[in-house]
Amino acid sequence: MTSTPGTDDKELLPAVLDDRWVEMYRQMVRIRAFEEQVNELYTRAVMPGLAHLYIGEEAIAVGVSESLHQDDYITSTHRGHGHCLAKGAAPDRMFAELLGKAAGYCHGKGGSMHIADPSTGNLGANAIVGGSMGIATGAAFSAKQLGNGRVAVCYFGEGALGQGVLYEVMNLASLWSLPVLYVCENNLYNEYTHFTETTAGDICARASAFGVCAESVDGQDVRAVHEAALLMVGRARRGEGPAFLLCNTYRYTGHHVGDISREYYRSKQEEQDWKTHRDPIRRHGEWLMAEGLADQAALMAVEHEARAEMLAAVEFATAAPWPLPEDVERHVYA
Amino acid sequence: MTSTPGTDDKELLPAVLDDRWVEMYRQMVRIRAFEEQVNELYTRAVMPGLAHLYIGEEAIAVGVSESLHQDDYITSTHRGHGHCLAKGAAPDRMFAELLGKAAGYCHGKGGSMHIADPSTGNLGANAIVGGSMGIATGAAFSAKQLGNGRVAVCYFGEGALGQGVLYEVMNLASLWSLPVLYVCENNLYNEYTHFTETTAGDICARASAFGVCAESVDGQDVRAVHEAALLMVGRARRGEGPAFLLCNTYRYTGHHVGDISREYYRSKQEEQDWKTHRDPIRRHGEWLMAEGLADQAALMAVEHEARAEMLAAVEFATAAPWPLPEDVERHVYA
Amino acid sequence: MPDTEVRELTFAQAVREALAEEMRRDSRVCILGEDVAEAGTPFKVLSGLVEEFGTTRVVDTPISEAGFCGVAVGAAMTGLRPVVDIMFGDFLTLTMDQLVNQAAKIHYMSGGRWKVPMVVRTTLGATRRSAAQHSQSLHAWFSHVPGLKVIMPSTPADAKGLLKSAIRDENPVIFFEDKMMHHKLRGPVPAGDFSIPLGVADVKREGTDITLVGTSSMVQVALGAATLLEQIGISAEVIDPRTLWPLDEAALVNSARKTSRAIVIDEGYGRYGATAELAAVISEGAFYDLDGPVIRMGAMHVPIPFSPPLEDLTVPTENSVFEAARKLCRRA
Amino acid sequence: MPDTEVRELTFAQAVREALAEEMRRDSRVCILGEDVAEAGTPFKVLSGLVEEFGTTRVVDTPISEAGFCGVAVGAAMTGLRPVVDIMFGDFLTLTMDQLVNQAAKIHYMSGGRWKVPMVVRTTLGATRRSAAQHSQSLHAWFSHVPGLKVIMPSTPADAKGLLKSAIRDENPVIFFEDKMMHHKLRGPVPAGDFSIPLGVADVKREGTDITLVGTSSMVQVALGAATLLEQIGISAEVIDPRTLWPLDEAALVNSARKTSRAIVIDEGYGRYGATAELAAVISEGAFYDLDGPVIRMGAMHVPIPFSPPLEDLTVPTENSVFEAARKLCRRA
Ligand SMILES: Cc1ncc(C[n+]2csc(CCOP(=O)(O)OP(=O)(O)O)c2C)c(N)n1
Ligand SMILES: Cc1ncc(C[n+]2csc(CCOP(=O)(O)OP(=O)(O)O)c2C)c(N)n1
Ligand SMILES: [Mg+2]
Ligand SMILES: [Mg+2]
């Protein structure tokens, strides 16, 4: 985001890193470090339920979020940690939520799939595939009616292209020129099924048929994502209507943390190819160095800091207390 | 339809009329005569509830149905009388249904919006806008699985483009190459709202984005409709997949029989223009005469016969008995 | 004192008045639905509103019930107070994910951090010759779902007072209007600002021998039956819970304890419906005072048929309620 | 006698066996759903079926619940017998128009001329740490709708026998599986063709002092409570209706008349849920034999929370049922 994110250590970074491209590197690294800790918690059987990791897809949330203001809205998905962090969520309260603790963003009531936070414009992650498309479009409807200049971003996986409500709300957004950006993260799989088995025709054409401006980018290239998002967010903010950004990407790990044996639906070779040749963090780091925007040591420092930040956050969450029994009946009605 | 329809008087027509184009004229005239009687029944307060007339749109149902076999499937809409008749339904049993009589196609339980008839492949009219898109696609799924060579036609108004399920099932039909034809009847209005206020982008592009072969035709030209339908049905039957036929048309009368004062949503002038310049029956009649396929007298005879047929059918239905009280609990479960 | 003036209005006029007053009071209130603007809905309930408030606040939508309900959820979270129009209650089937998985749960799932102050106005009721897909009364489904409130007004005054409370409520509220009442039922309605709290039942008629609990359309049926019962010397009390959730359990239980007999009447399907809950609440609370089991009367367990003589068999009537009450009282 | 052989199977194995046997018997039976083929569903219930029956009969779909349910409706009308897989019962919200306005009503609306022989297999149940949108038990909604049948198996044998009946039924049937049972609950299951008629309750344990009516997941809870009650000298009868519609009312009523006390336990939300209907049926039928009101126990009226200590408070447990039963018996 162009406004200052919520964590403290950011201010401590050396001046040379105080550059947007470097900031994006840092955000991607933070997301990956967060997810690695999630996996760790799961492996240690400390985390209740499951979680869906964003590792490999970091460039999308970061490239998009860096084009937003703090009070712009996002909606997120079951694979939502990256979206939340990139929009400014604090890792400690996120981990607390993942562990079901009272200090979590949702008082422990939401868990991994429901992180929500008004202070960063996060309308909520959603465990229903396609479940937040209406919500994001509605936030854009408010922004237009109230004239507050905000933009709403709706993240979803390519599997959500199967949900009819997407076409209903794209039609509405187009008719009413709403400031909403639909960001489709095509990581090739709907759970355990390749998207080509579930997705006919042409993805971007599905949006443009509704008069929604559509474009496809390399989702492993944070600069490409960011530049496209900047353009689309700008259009939307100027009242020029909705846009659809297709980001081609890959999830490195399982559909969820428990999805360990994946060879029946994809090869180890395919996974390795993406990790080796298209890793968004490594690619961006190499570019930063080539451009002289950062050196190896600076990038290493970013990684160390991120890891330290996440370890501290895990520690906070682990030590945090559970909600009280009487909390179970609170928040049913406002 | 290419197979013989269910009514008897057809066999009595002179030999010169035994031609497909003349048959289509006859079918259009029958539909209009049917609908005029429906309006009459409503005006006389004999018909329970409401009905949605197909007057002005006859060329579509006729042009499409004439490309189908008797055992091909159709699904229809709230504005369904024309679809049912063109597929071979008998007017007497239809009127009986409209009056809620036991002799009706559905034992009086369905009424105007639910005419269904397995013997003519009519899977049912539907009072939910978009409600039969899944059903038609499912019938095509069966046809493919069972290898029986049938095709399913799904009729709907342009208002149904607002229902997300259309995009869900077009995706399925495209992925699985199902023999289904989506026929969109764009009569310019969703009830009392012009379709441009509800429909963004490009209608045919919405289908082709899903890999569904799409084409737009003049829905007031029965030959144009028929030729497009023949092609699409042929493709589908050969296993080449689904198609989408956009038919541009107009309803001459109200959204339903009670919609009398329409000037707040459309002008009398607009209505008159369509009736005068684009009437499908008159245009086709003129063409038949110009081609020497029929003379004025023959066309007049068709009209007289149709009117007589419909009057007899109304008489049958009026005299028919109500269902018995105990019928109310029959047919809940098979 | 224009605020205490009472006029005779139709049910539809009362609904429209509530909306107009709330829209004047609060610029965040807006209406979304099919043919709500110039057409004023097919039921002509909203006629005149677009002329006063314009098309940015009275918004015609495509036929996309899921889509525009979803938009309303998001709009409600971010500063508006949308009132959604779902023409026939049967079309709620298309909105269940938006209302049940999203609207109802967002406040709770977010630990109280987001709110969804929206109203869904919709219809219920049969006997309109509209057949199986336009005649359902599906309010029991929503009453089953924590996070939603469910309102069932039975008079023009209740319609106005409860709709105003619904619009001011911070939660998603489903407001069911009997479509047969819109223009047929007239009644006194206070002018000006007048609201009725949610969760307070109303005694529509006092009585001593039997309690008739009616909802929405069935309140008039119960009142009609009470008149018939009076003629044979049975004094029936008619109670209208007005909101199914929150539910004024005490009012139902106290009346049944007083009369020692109860019949609950609702136009939804009879099995696994609202009558089951109302009967269970009364049975639990008044068990030791009841002379006989609570009788439930709802729509017959059949899809609503089109044919008039069949359709008329499917819903409780004054006569069928009268007969059931008579039997229950005699048995005691 | 291979047909009377009885093996220990998990609930998931029993479901799979029923499907495999029916698919072998009848080539019209096919499966539609997300990740049903190679993945065998995320719950691994269908593993192995695609290997035997191929991808034309075990069909992976896009994430389009409304769309593929609709396809199943049409396919059922035209010669197939589809079994649809809706992964989490919460996703049924997306299929309500297809199931309620279409599948449930087509036979009736067509005057008996079309039939819709299809099965929807889906899941219910909380305590899996899946939070509010993946933990609901929405069977009450479907039981409310004429034209649908609703099955709630509680043991592997019931799952097999009832699923086979569902597939052979000529109507749309919703089949709810408790997702916590799939791999945790084992039990004896007859090999070969073995079906259980719909509408016949099962006495899971005989007793004389109190009737515990449990559905699906709550049958084990009731049995656990019965064991605890036995230790304090209370003999509990545990009845499982097995199908909520058709409902074996006589079995419930007769048991309650015998014991004079009843508790109904169901994992759906407690208000306007299945417990209300079951309690009302018992109250109506056994009124004069009951010592006290029928007690209802369902999920707390809250969206299911993620946090484990909170989630565990929301559903009835052996202990809470034991306490309620003890109270009811003491009071008598
Ligand atoms: C409506 C609905 N259907 C099914 C599911 C189960 N489900 C959870 S994630 C998922 C796959 C989603 O794929 P995609 O949208 O591509 O997101 P990804 O997991 O790849 O990020 C499915 C089917 C769900 N949560 N919601
Ligand atoms: C899901 C649903 N929403 C709304 C309606 C109410 N309704 C009936 S017909 C209609 C307009 C349909 O327009 P269109 O599809 O263009 O068909 P036309 O009437 O023009 O033939 C509407 C909104 C309905 N029946 N079903
Ligand atoms: Mg994906
Ligand atoms: Mg139209």
Main attributes of the structure:
heterotetramer, A: 334 residues, alpha/beta, five-stranded parallel β-sheet, two-stranded antiparallel ribbon, 7 strands, 10% strand, globular, C: 332 residues, seven-stranded mixed β-sheet, 14 strands, 38% helix, binds thiamine diphosphate, binds magnesium ion
Overview in brief:
Chain A is α/β, with parallel strands linked by helices and 334 residues long.
How would you describe the overall organization of this protein?
The complex is a heterotetramer, with 2 copies of chain A (334 residues) and 2 copies of chain C (332 residues). Chain A is α/β, with parallel strands linked by helices. The two termini of chain A are 31 Å apart. A 5-stranded parallel beta sheet of chain A has the order 1-2-3-7-6, with helices on both faces. Chain A has a two-stranded antiparallel ribbon with strand order 4-5. In chain A, helix 6 (165-175) links the parallel strand 2 and strand 3 (180-186). Chain A has helices spanning 20-43, 58-65, 81-86, 91-98, 133-146, 165-175, 203-208, 222-237, 268-277, 280-290, 296-319; strands at 73-75, 152-157, 180-186, 189-190, 193-194, 213-218, 243-248. Chain A is globular and about 50 Å long. Mean pLDDT of chain A is 94; it is low at 1-17. In chain A, helix 1 crosses helix 2 (58-65) and helix 4 packs across helix 11 (296-319). Helix content of chain A is 41%, strand content 10%. Chain A is built from 11 helices and 7 strands. Chain C is an alpha/beta fold and 332 residues long. Chain C has helices spanning 11-25, 49-53, 65-77, 96-109, 139-143, 156-168, 217-231, 249-259, 274-286, 308-314, 318-331, and strands at 6-10, 29-33, 58-60, 81-86, 119-124, 149-151, 173-178, 186-190, 202-205, 210-214, 236-240, 243-245, 262-269, 295-299. In chain C, the strands form 3 sheets. Chain C has a 7-stranded mixed beta sheet with strand order 3-2-4-5-7-6-12, with helices on both faces. In chain C, strand 13, helix 9 (274-286) and strand 14 form a beta-alpha-beta unit. The longest helix of chain C has 15 residues, at 11-25. Chains C and D meet through helix 4, helix 5 and helix 9 of C and helix 4, helix 5 and helix 9 of D. Bound molecules: thiamine diphosphate (2 copies) and magnesium ion (2 copies). Residues 157-159, 187, 189-190 of chain B line the site of one magnesium ion. One thiamine diphosphate sits between chains B (52, 78-79, 127-129, 157-160, 187, 189-191, 255) and C (34, 63, 65, 87, 91, 94).
